[in-house]
Amino acid sequence: NAGVTQTPKFRVLKTGQSMTLLCAQDMNHEYMYWYRQDPGMGLRLIHYSVGEGTTAKGEVPDGYNVSRLKKQNFLLGLESAAPSQTSVYFCASRLERAQRYNEQFFGPGTRLTVL
Amino acid sequence: GDSVTQMEGPVTLSEEAFLTINCTYTATGYPSLFWYVQYPGEGLQLLLKATKADDKGSNKGFEATYRKETTSFHLEKGSVQVSDSAVYFCALSDRDYGQNFVFGPGTRLSVLP
User: B29 to chain A, minimum CA–CA distance in Å?
Assistant: First the structure.
């Protein structure tokens, strides 16, 4: 049981390049989330999904797109990377049933640098 | 809206000292409360949780009690170790739908030998 995995672990992009971050979970969770973590700013929610084929905006969605084509995968895309998107990105998942009692499970993170 | 407030860090303690990290919350419903820990270079891990008033969550020597009357969930440990150095996040969840998980800003703890 791998839990939540993220690919890649590290990436350096040039301004204007595009990339996709992959999150996968093997716990059959309905809910999945993408956060970014910047120094001194805690976690900020980018997008989330309540099930296969659905996505919704979080607190800081601009400049990012997401897709949830399969229940176990949640992709985060940067179409035209900007230096302001330099951050550590975390994916998380959560069981839907009796949600308020259930914790989120986090992946190990992807460290992205945009030059 | 819902919110979580934590004490400002960083907190620096000597090994074997007593730890308290304060957490207070604002919520419209009856939230579940969580403490997460993030070790350097890693993702967040659940440390403990409590799902109703007066519940006590505990794990690895850490404890926190859900106090509805003071809307608090303070994290405590009787004797910290160097290996407890990390960032600690308080969080709440109060609805069974949508985007319903709220994190505090985190408190960095450094434990010196």
Answer: 10
